[in-house]
């Protein structure tokens, strides 16, 4: 049965205009001044008091690790403490446990407005393909509500005789339906060789490459430069994302600029991941602690697509997090000194571009991927990050959360954007 058109009434746009938005068959049909569109035959939603935005995307998640922080402590608090703790824990995980946590986490991302998610799923000793199979199952069952891309995250080494089993498992993951090739070449004994293997395998299967790159503060060796050189040399055509790229933010400006130029020429997108890198990085500094973010301005000045994501969600790599792109954008404002507009662009338009998805705008002809937040402006939406939201995917309302504040000694209960709650 075909759904009726959807009419979003009296929403505020990020530029301050108040509009009605009519949606039909998954596409924004009309955007007109508030109160002017005919509601005949449409499902009408009153968005007075809401800002209406292009829906964000979570560009870099780990659904297979999500919500494990209490079960997997990381006393050191740093990257290698988290890796050690996770590798020791994951052999105990069943496919059913991973499915449950991944499903719960994905529900949270969607409720906060992310109508697309790219997640990594571990392969390797102790976990085999269980995590991948679980996340693929969650991807498929959620297809009508959220576009999920799954990156097969290979164990290292991939190179040499020692990497034979990991290479075979990565190939098997692509046969099983993984959407992208992933690895952390900086942890391989031969980073350049690891990159070459990943590029070759991704090219064979016609899928993108999504690597964890230089997730540390020391600038050498620079895996990002190796990756840019390799992508340029091969002409790899399926899209490449370099996640983290933390050490680029610690380099001398001239060197960082030259590498950023190479990244731009190669067409590589960079995913900045503030939550996890603010948590993990700089713990060996006792003063002037680095923020652990990539070189945002240098990359953008070179013309690189710079997306941003939340990365880990309440696991040993990042104890906190809400699965909320507005939280990611807010951290870009606070820790990266972005404007609210640039920060939100990183979690929406730039994230979708990096993932190879069609662009979205609140404009006729655009795919109807939208987020309405109870707030008067984009800045206020990032500041309050209220749970009071409405989410539209493919022209359908797929999540709606309302928040009510109770003031027992004052007026009757009223919706309030500053309160936290969830009824979706």
Give a brief outline of the structure:
This protein is an alpha/beta fold. Helices cover 33% and strands 21% of the residues. The longest helix has 17 residues.
General description of the model:
This protein is α/β, with parallel strands linked by helices and 424 residues long. It has two domains: 6-54 and 361-415, Urease, subunit C, domain 1; 57-354, TIM Barrel, CATH 3.20.20. The chain has 13 helices and 18 strands. The protein has helices at residues 79-89, 95-111, 130-141, 164-175, 191-205, 223-234, 253-266, 274-280, 296-302, 325-336, 340-347, 349-354, 378-384; strands at 6-12, 18-24, 27-33, 43-46, 50-54, 57-61, 116-122, 147-153, 180-182, 209-213, 240-244, 268-272, 306-308, 370-374, 389-393, 396-401, 404-405, 414-415. It has a four-stranded mixed beta sheet with strand order 3-2-1-4, with no helix packed on it. Strands 5-14-15-16 form a four-stranded antiparallel beta sheet, with no helix packed on it. A four-stranded parallel beta sheet has the order 6-7-8-9. Helix 5 packs across helix 6 (223-234) and helix 10 packs across helix 11. The radius of gyration is 22 Å and the shape is globular.
Which terms would index this structure?
2 domains, 13 helices, 424 residues, four-stranded mixed beta sheet, single chain, disordered C terminus, TIM Barrel
Q: How many β-strand runs?
A: 18
Poorly predicted sequence stretches spanning 5 or more consecutive residues: 417-424
CATH superfamily of the largest domain: Metal-dependent hydrolases
Oligomer: single chain
Shape: globular
The largest sheet, given as strand count, sense and whether it forms a barrel, is: 4 strands, mixed
What is the number of helical segments per DSSP (H or I, 4+ residues)?
Answer: 13
Tell me what the CATH architecture of the largest domain is.
Alpha-Beta Barrel
Read across the widest sheet, the strand sequence of neighbours is 3-2-1-4
Remind me, CATH topology of the largest domain? TIM Barrel
Please give the alpha-carbon distance between the first and last residues.
24 Å
**Structural class, from secondary structure content?**
alpha/beta
Q: What is the CATH C-level name of the largest domain?
A: Alpha Beta
Measured by DSSP, the beta-strand proportion falls in: 15-25%
Mean pLDDT equals 95
Indicate how many domains the architecture comprises: 2
